[in-house]
Amino acid sequence: MKHIYTGKTKDVYALDNGNYLLRFKDDVTGENGVFDPGANTVGLTMEGAGKAGLRLTKYFFERLQEKEIPTHYVEANIDEATMTVKPATVFGKGLEVICRYRAVGSFLRRYGLYAEEGQALDAFVEVTLKDDERQDPPISEDALDMLGILSTAEYKVLKELTQSIANVVKTELAHKGMELYDIKLEFGRVGDDGQIALIDEISGGNMRAYKDGKYVEPLELTRLMLEG
Q: What pTM was estimated for this model as a whole?
């Protein structure tokens, strides 16, 4: 097992069989000690966040497998906070895809002249470049195609997958009395045919959910989903 990458919330190792091992850490994104799933920096450390994020990721990835939605997931080891995944090639130098049901976070900061906090959005899909130096700028479908990052046909698949996955998560949360406001996903090309598939994770650290009008912290979200 060879260490190949240290990320904000996970370390990545190459396995001898060609797959990869993701080790989940207790670091979460945010700024000045405040959690923010859309932040570009590690803002704080929450004890148990790594295993909690993996537990929720395992739960959702297995739900997606049941629905034949493509992912890179192979298996997970909760005790060791690790997940085995198939190799994937990211688009360009990496994209983040956000599905929004409520106007909060960076959407509100950008469009506050027209949007009110918390107003309903119809599964709005937004793509941003993974570029910390430039604060992960949003990019349009046309620009993705013109810059050779993602073709128009691939964008259509990406958008449909994003909305399908977000709807699965939204429905599962609703069963536990929570409302999904937004979720951030990552995708890549997997397998010899380059199938577009969900990669990375689905955890409390990359979504905003509310219960009875109050924001649900990542650890509490996992507890409510899997134990509540």
A: 0.91
